[in-house]
Amino acid sequence: MLPLLGDTFVVQSPDFQGYVVVDAMVGGRAVGGTRMTPGVTLDDVAGLANQMSLKLALAGLPIGGAKAGIRCALPEGERRDRALRDFGRWAAPLLRDGVYLGSDQGVTYRDRAILFEAAGFDESAISPRRPLPCSWGQLWEHLADITGHGVAEATSVAVSGEGRTVALQGFGIVGRGAAQELTQLGAIVVAVADRLGVVAAPGGLPLDLVLAATDAAGTIDRTALPDGLLLSGRPDAWLDVDADILVLAAGGGALHAGNADRVQASLVVEGANSPCTRDALRALAARGIPVLPGIVANCGSATVTALVLTDSLPGVDDAPDVASLTKYLFDRVGSQVRDTTREVIARANRSGVSWYEAAEDLARRRLPRASGPAPARSGPTRSAQTRSAQTRWQSQSQTERTSTMSSDTMPDLAHATVGKPSTRLSDPLPQAQDPGDFVDGLTNEVLTSAAANIGPFYERLIAGRIPLSGVQAWVKQWYVDSRMFPSVIGQIAANAGYFYDARQVMGANFAEELGEFNPLREHPVTVRQLARALGVSDEELEFTEPYPETLLYVEYRQHLVRDYHWLEGLAAGSFAIELTIPNRFRKIAAALSAQFGLDDEALEVFRIHAGDERLELDYGGDDKHAGEAQDLIRKYAVTAEMQHRVRLAMWRSIEARKVYQWGLFREICLKHDPLWSTIVAGSDAPAEQTV
């Protein structure tokens, strides 16, 4: 399993390639469908996850967008089911940690049930506060047409009046649902397209008969149709149909630069996910043909799922049974889609932009307002405290976070005299250095800095001069630090954007931090393993009160990797930290082994970071990570400005670590020195008692 981004995960197996992209976590949750086709790509999944975030923001629902993809060409059967189970087991940690993956193209409710069972995911727990009156699967049997309902309602607002002719590209669940409701609203369906071609009738199709001849996958049996209909076997014949409205209800990219000029309709409605490419949107705009975006019209299923996951359903008294709940959901989706369509069109008219631009702008404006507190969970989950810390930061605006950690409010980092840079941080570089010389200089600065290496606390720890109680206190603080470090690596990768080599490197690093996603090999778990060997209980560890300096260091490091350029984050969160770890960890491991008789299992965390070929998962230690960081800095820090910023970020990280070390030294060493109590007593005593 190789994560490419902090929110992107890829798994490879002989039968399939799987992807999950979490575009946004809002309130500790994200939702999206799982697509299973022979051609789905990571880029497809990423785009769909972003579209999901925008849909949910437009709907005003406090949940983020995600998407899963399974690239698989297996036919139905046991081997395909096994692929679904393998994907479910792989995705289990995401499902448990708030990423709900439902059904999408190629994934039936049966498939989803197989996936969930393999993941050990209980669907009955998705709406803990308001139990559903039936199973999740049974509810969706009543809501099969909910997305088509939304498409039809949006279309009725965009183009009013009866007698409008409609052509549908795609006659699956969404296309059929939209066709039926548009007919009820007075429209005339003149053509539908499936995988075999087009069925058309200029005066209007006998929709009931066409529906009766259509199978569950949306393929129309031509032999079961009445005489007199126009049949075409050309897969793109729907482009040439003369109709007022074209509803795109099949796959993505149906309209593109090569065919958009053939559209005959005066309105295009996106009833699928991203059926129009950006080139197609520009071509249609140039011809004066508006496009009603899918994030407005194609949101029925997403809205229902989000309502359930966020416990936003009406109470049992208001919707006591399946029928009343179904009616509520259809009404809710219909009113929401109508209101959003009106607002988007009004904004477009006021601003002189396309409907598409107006919808995306409105969605992005609503994104911050969608965030809220994490929902209550029915029982403890892994990394709960880590998520709590992340949620606290996510709940602040960018401005608040930046001001909170600005230099004006930071304490004086020089108060702990355990090392300082050889030159002032404010010294600008007059010109760019040779990248190789620049990295060599950075490396030398880190390796010769006391703050980045040993310091007074670690000197005493390595010398065996700290008693068991002090070592226990230290490992507790280290655990607070270690729980947050995977998010440091993930954030650097996420910020790297289209620097794919950086994403790959940091993604591999992230996987290693999480023990190749083996819960027993996650690095924080190996710290816990050490703590147990030292006599610290899991409860003591989980409820450790961090020293103020520990908290400052962890949060300031998060600030450096989150709010700066990814190269600055790399210098602060990886290079400056991991370069010095192997040497220090070898010494600490040897000291703890000698002082307390700890075995290799207890000391595994040190062996992992220092590199030990005897380990089952030996990645070469942090020497490898530091070398990879050096290579990336050498490759991309080539301007004077970027070299200066990278160097500043490195030293900010070192200075923050200096504060962390001072906190350890004060609490574990100084406070247990007899002289310390004399000094404290003297400073706090009344004047007449002062010595």
UniProtKB/TrEMBL annotation:
Domain Glutamate/phenylalanine/leucine/valine/L-tryptophan dehydrogenase C-terminal, which positions? 141-372
Looking up SMART domains in the UniProt record yields: ELFV_dehydrog (SM00839), Haem_oxygenase_2 (SM01236)
Q: Which InterPro entries match?
A: Aminoacid_DH-like_N_sf (IPR046346), Glu/Leu/Phe/Val/Trp_DH (IPR006095), Glu/Leu/Phe/Val/Trp_DH_C (IPR006096), Glu/Leu/Phe/Val/Trp_DH_dimer (IPR006097), Haem_Oase-like_multi-hlx (IPR016084), NAD(P)-bd_dom_sf (IPR036291), S-Ado-L-homoCys_hydrolase_CS (IPR020082)
Gene3D superfamilies xrefs = Heme oxygenase-like, Leucine Dehydrogenase, chain A, domain 1, NAD(P)-binding Rossmann-like Domain
- Entry keywords, A to Z: Oxidoreductase
Q: Does the keyword Cytoplasm apply?
A: no
State the protein's name. Answer: Glutamate/phenylalanine/leucine/valine/L-tryptophan dehydrogenase C-terminal domain-containing protein
Q: Which organism is it from?
A: Solihabitans fulvus
